[in-house]
Design goal:
355 residues; six-stranded parallel beta sheet; Rossmann fold; four-stranded mixed beta sheet; 15% strand; alpha/beta; 434 Repressor (Amino-terminal Domain); elongated; 3 domains
């Protein structure tokens, strides 16, 4: 007897294939071997699986809309992503639907429901499980934004690890610092995990003892203030704090200054992202500049191409460049220019100095 309530995920388990393969077979799209197709069709026939009609609707691109899936929207980082993504969508006359998952216990179900109303989905890395991403990829084009996708799912990201290694080496070599703490939760997002790996790699490359465990906090300014409080309770203070993003670094700067510490004389602080405020605080923040708007714009271009051309995507991966931006918070002399956003080349390759 058939069971029409079985999901594509359950059929995939019964047939020993991925959810994306079940969707390709049931929708008649993509390349699947005859043996695999036979197993899937047998499972479908035996259990009476009936796919959602959305597959055919999406192939025809009937919605003129694309979706963005984020964990939340707080802070300038998400604002920049939305503006970059929307600029491309508007040019293609597609509307943008945004879903935030952080307050939803049934986030996977909500995203799958959203997939019924859009022509493609961009999902921030680490927001959904690989299994859910593959299920979605069997229904419509999916691109992972700022993270790596599972096999068969396209992605657009930056090289977090290499740029964090370069920034950390700047502190260890150019400033001869040895006691560095990392602020950020590597299990909280793929970006932070890669930055933590780059931080550790810099120590390995120089033959230095590996740093102690990170101070695991979130990515907002209050989290940075809280991290500063934790650091200042220690009997031996670090010489520098390397933060997973600028928002946290700005919070650490506020917390350290509130306790009378002078940055960078008493404590070096660095960030990651190069949000506008990083160049405006005193001292200006040494950080890694990543092209946040372009990251989202490239994601939108790829997603719209896949949706418009009905292409399978085949797991293409685009990695955008970053650069270390050296300012006063690490102890480098400030530029003489009055424009805080002006950037000039330092003698060391890959580093830029701004006032």
């Amino acid at each position: 007897m058939g069971n029409g309530r079985l999901t594509a995920r359950e059929i995939a388990r019964l047939a020993g294939v991925s959810v994306a393969t079940v969707s390709r077979v049931s929708n008649g799209t993509g390349q699947v071997s005859e043996e695999t197709r036979r197993r899937v069709l047998e499972a479908i026939e035996e259990h009476g699986y009936r796919p959602h009609h959305v597959g055919q609707a999406l192939a025809a691109r009937r919605h003129s809309a694309v979706g963005l899936v984020f964990p939340g929207l707080s802070g300038p980082y998400f604002s920049e992503l939305i503006q970059g993504f929307e600029s491309e969508a508007v040019n293609s006359r597609a509307s943008v639907h945004i879903l935030c998952t952080h307050l939803r216990a049934d986030s996977d179900t909500e995203v799958i429901e959203m997939a019924h109303r859009v022509d493609g989905l961009a999902v921030l890395g680490g927001t959904l499980s690989e299994e859910t991403l593959q299920e979605l990829a069997g229904m419509l084009p999916v691109v992972v934004l700022a993270g790596e996708g599972p096999p068969g799912v396209s992605s657009v990201r930056v090289d977090n690890a290499a740029s964090m290694t370069a920034l950390t080496r700047h502190l260890l070599v150019d400033h001869a610092l040895r006691r560095l703490d990392f602020v950020g939760n590597p299990s909280g997002s793929p970006d932070v995990s890669e930055r933590w790996a780059g931080f550790r790699e810099a120590h390995r490359q120089l033959g230095l003892p590996l740093p102690r465990a990170p101070i695991r906090v979130g990515l907002q300014q209050p989290d940075g203030v809280f991290a500063a409080e934790q650091v200042l309770r220690r009997s031996i203070l670090p010489q520098g704090i390397v933060c997973a993003n600028d928002e946290t670094a700005l919070g650490v700067l506020v917390g350290a200054s509130g306790h009378g510490l002078r940055v960078p004389k008493d404590l070096v602080i660095t960030g990651f992202d190069d949000v506008p405020m990083a160049a405006l605080v005193t001292p200006a923040l040494t950080t890694v500049r990543q092209p946040v708007r372009e990251l989202a714009a490239q994601t939108a271009r790829l997603l719209l191409h896949l949706a418009t051309e009905n292409a399978d995507g085949s797991g293409s991966a685009l990695v955008l460049p970053t650069e270390v931006v050296v300012r006063a918070s690490c102890g480098c002399p400030a530029s003489s220019t009055s424009d805080p956003t002006t950037t000039g080349r330092r003698p060391r390759a890959g580093l830029h100095q701004a006032g």
